[in-house]
Each structure stands twice: as C-alpha cells, then as structure tokens.
Input
Amino acid sequence: MIKSGMISFLNPILLSGILGMSIPIIIHLINRKKALSHKFAAIDFILQSNKRISVKFKLRQLILLMLRTALIAFLALAVAKPYLTNFGGSTSGKSAPTSNVIILDVSYSMQYAGRNESFFATARNAARLIVNNLTKDDNAAVILCSDYTKKPTKTGAEPQALPELDYDKSRLLTFLEQSRPRFVTTDVASAMDAAVEILIAGGETSLKRIFLLTDLTRNGWDTDWFKSGNEKLRNHVSRIHVVDVSEDKALKNIAITSIEPHVETFQKTEEGRIKVTVSNFSPDKVKNLLAQVYINGKKTTQGFYNIDPNSSEVKEFSFSIASEYAEAKPGKRKDIAGWVEIPDDHLNADNKRYFTINGSRKLDILLIDGDPKTNIYESETFYLEKALNPGRDHASSINPVVCSVQEVNDINLDRFPIVFLCNVETLPTEKIRELEKYVRQGGSVVFSMGGKVDAGYYNNSFGDLLPYRLHTARTFSDNGALSEEQPLHLKTTEPLHPTLRAFSEADKHVLNTIKFYRIMYVDPTSPGNCKTILSFSNDTPAVVERQVDKGKAVFLASSLDRDWTDLPVKPLFLPLIQQLCRYLAGNVGEEMQHGIEVADAWQLPSPYDVNTLEIMNPEGEKTLLQPQSVNNEKVFSYNETSLPGIYTVTVNGEAHQKLPQRFAVNLDTKESNLDKMEQNNVTALLAGTNLTITSAPISTGGDALMGEAKMTLWGPILFFTLCILFAESIISRK
Output
C-alpha cells in the first residue's frame, strides 16, 4: 500500500520528446489556412446541403489531432520510464536523517557469475549506490552476512564485535572495496539480529532502515529466528529492503558434494579408492560430465557422469598406491593428497573437492595371552588378533604378535609400540619392571580383564601403571527381573577423543546395543592424568586412559573374548580396537583423511615430544601453533580454515612420523543448492514489517535501491500508447 508518493523518471532527459506533440498541431493549423473562394451558383445549393457532413468532418479531424498529439506525448513518457516513489512511511528518507545498516551477503553462492559479473560484484555495486545516495545527515554501517552468526561456531571463535553507525561515506566505501566473497554459508537471521542491535545502539533517528543484498537462496534463512526476531524488527526498524541481486532468476548448479577416500590393502598390493558424489541442482539432465582425479598434482584417472534433474550420482575411482608412494623414502610415512574436479560452470567454487590419504606405519603389537586354549577359537586373544589383522584377501597395517606368559621372557618389549595384557594372571617380576620402564619411556600398555585377573595382585604389581586401583568383579544376569541385574551397555564419555572421533553418530549409537555380563569395578579415586573414554550404562568406567610420563596405560573393564561380553562379535569391535591402537601408537592420521569443512577447527592430540607445530595454508601462509591443555591432554587446535584446499603440517620444517603430513578443507555443500526463497515466503517471515523486495537490475537506479520505487509506470503507459495508435489508424481510414 502506498502511503505517500510522487512520480520520478529513470530517463528524465527523454521527456524532451513531449515537444514533438506540437508537430501534429502545426500540421493541423497549416491545413486550416483558407484558400481563395469562388462562388458558383450551380453548386451553392449542394454546399448548403452538406453542412451537417462538414461538422462531422471537422470533429474527426479534431479527434485525430488529439490522438496524434497524445500519441507523441505518451510515447515520450514511456521512454522516460516513470515510476512511483516514496512508499511505505510517513517520513521520506530524503527529508529527514536516517540510520542504515547494509547487510552484504558474502557466502560462496554469491560467486555465481551470470553473463557479465558475479552476484557479489553486483551486490557490492548496489551497496556503493546506497551509500552514495545517503545525505550528510544520514549514518550507516556495513556488515557481512557471515560475521555475526548466533550459532555455535565450528572453530569455537567468538563472533565479531558489532560496528558503530558512521557518517563518513569514505570509510564505508573503503570497507566495501576491501570486502571479498568467502567460502562460507549464508546466515540471514543472525545478520538481521546484528543489524537491529546496531540500530538500537545508534540512538534515535526518525527513520531506521536495513538493506539486505543477497541472492535470496533458501539455505541461508533460519525460519525459527524470525518467529521471535520479527518483533524486534517491527519495534526498531522503519523499513527493510531486500535486494535480490540474482534478479529473481532460477539458478542452476552442478557440484561435487561428497568425497570419500580410503585404501584397500591386499596381501601384495594396496589400492586407493575414492567414492565421489556429484549433484545436479537443476531441472535439466546432465550428460557425459567429465570428472578428473588428481593425485599429488598429477591427473590419475577420470570418469563420466549422467545425472538426472535434481539428483545425484556416485562413482568410485581407483588407482595404484605403489606408484604414488614411489618417491617416498624407505621407512618414512607415506601420505597422498589430491582433488577431484568437474568442468567450470556459473559457480566454480564447488567444482573441486580435496582429500588426503595419510599413510599408515606398519605396527607390530604384542598380545600376551593369559588364557590360551587348544581350540584357538576359545583363546583369550582370538578375537583381538582377528580385529587387528582380519586376514584373507585383505591385509592390515597392524601386525599382531601373540605370545603366552611363559614366552614373554624371551621377547624385547621395545620393538612393540603397544603391549596388550589379556586376562594375564601373573608376570615375572623382572618383566613387570621392564614393562613399567617401557611405558615411562613412551610405550603403551592395555590391561584387559578376565577370570584369571586378581584385583589385589594387579594393584600391588601394576599399581604405578593402572589408571584406577581394581576393586572387584561383578556379574550381571541377562534374565534378572531387576534393572540392576540386566547386562550393562556402553556410552561415550569423551566423544571427541581420537579413538572415537572417526565414528559417526550412528556408530556411537551402536555402543548402546553391546551387552556386558561381567565387569571389573574400580576404586572411585585415581592417581591423576586419567581420562574415561567410555563408560558403562551405570556410569562406572569402561575404558580409561592414563598418561604415565611419556607413555600411556589403558584399562578395559571387561574381557576381549566372549566370556564377559558380546563386544568381540559386534561389527564395531574391529574399528574400535584398530583406532585405539593407532591412537596409542601416535598414528592418528587416518582419521583425518576425509578432511574438514571451511570454518571447522582442526584439532589433533600432541605427541609427547612435539611443542611447536607449523601449518601452511593453500596460499602458502604459515602459522605456528603451541599445544593447549584440554581435559589434561595436550592438543593442537587450528582455526584459520577459511580457504578450501590442502594444508601442510610440519615440525621444525619437516614431516613428523606421528602426525598427518597434510589435511583437506572443503566447502559446506548445503550452499551449493541454489533453490530460491519465494518472495511471498520472505514476506511471510517478515510479516508486519515495512518490507520491499527489489529484483530489478541494479541499473534501474539509486531510488529503486533505496526502496523508494514501489511501482513502475512505463509498461501501462506504453500499452496505452499502442491503444491510441490503434484507434488513430482506424479513425484515419474512415
């Protein structure tokens, strides 16, 4: 509804064409010049009889004159493009001081390029026009759409401080000039909330306005916020003007939305495999789309996609690991980095996706079997050995070495990074001292319980290594009527622990299905430096880790065979045990192979001997990191993941064998879906506010961008001109 209005013109100079309406008048006057008359008596009677015809003729000429004059006048008006201005408020923005917040969308969908320039370039030009239209009495602030998110930030960083309203146009224009599109997603709600806070803090002005310059894609609108935030907008904002820089056009996009690299290890060879998902966000079918895989900078393989409209297709690419490892030095960690790319389109940011495959070192792990059996299926270490090295067609980077208690004296512990004590009843005193020295110098020991474990003996013999003093074993009946007699289950206590970090939420949920019929209770106090990774459903510790000087000791409150639990026959047993071993051996790189998303924090437990880490981003900028203490654990945390690409990790300028050499950072692919918000949906979200939405080209001028062009008039005027032309042609032929 228009509350006040006036007519303005986009091309006022063309109004001079109205002068052309004088042409038919001049012609008409010339034709009215009287000629010399000569009377003839013979025709005088005829002339008298045609007076009525003469009157009709003059009336037709007058009508034609008016039509032709109006034709030229309306044609000139239509070419000058008039529109109705000053809508929606009792106070004109041009007659009273205003406070303005300009929200500039910098998400990566704004890199979408049409025929001439990207949406971001269009939005920035529009912002310049808005700033230049402000008077000396107006103040304004420019904010970026992703800087003030209210959601928990992935990096844990605090949102940026809100800017103040500024009267200096030059500072505002300089900020706009320095702004660049980013690789983040849109957050309209948080930006709106920040804009309201800026206007409230800016004091009293008669007119407060918010300008949102965006491509109006659906993913950036958090509808929940507007249920409460709408009241703030109504109470504190006079006008909201949304400028759709995509000009309300349907947007098409093809993107790589997922990439899953892994290594298949066979008895004699290793094969890299990459599962790549390409999504077609358009109503047209994609045919023969080329996807190319690059490994360590070289094109290795390629394939073609045929994708139905608004759907995805998954293909798996494979390559030989041996050829990629050829340049690696013997005995050194071997890492692979690469990317998959598809041809350029209107939005190139999501046409490339990165990955790393961090090579594993060969791990020899000692398993001391405290209850060997003639039937190997009943041996204490049977399931553990199979989990560490499944055998058959597939090999493992972990090589378990099984020995009995009687054979342990002949084994040097130093050749193993990890030692498992599986239901061991006793150990020779000399071996216990050797084990303690081995752990303090950097080795790891895992204590698993069983029927032969005596709590008193363990407390006296291994007390300096145990995370907790053992108390007593308790049995839980599967058929008991009381809840406390039911078998126990597992739950995560440290979900971000490296042992669990590689598991999905669905994997962690499976823990609740594992049954424990007997467990070892521990005393409630610990010697310190302990961390409970998993606990039972009754909140007693299940898996506990303790730092002992340079090494680690891990306590498992149940057995690793089927005597006390059904864990060994669950699918989660293999990855859980393998990931625990990789963590204890300092070989946690494989969990990072899928990479992280832009703005995620990259975190990694620090090896005991590493005090400084250097990370180089894809543009070659280097950052030195010091470890932080998180829950009594030294952790490296890197937050500067604003660019997609491959990041390099070094210690004193060289790769470290216990750390991944590289990690990948990729886009959050929800921004790749460019489905538009319907204007009526935006109107519904901002119901009750003084709202306008402009989707016309920026070339329509500053008044339209300021939200002062409610209705264009040249279309109806041009239509009326055509009607006049049609009427003139009919009358002139009579």
In short: Confidence is low (pLDDT under 50) at residues 87-93, 479-483, 589-593. The first helix runs from residue 22 to 31.
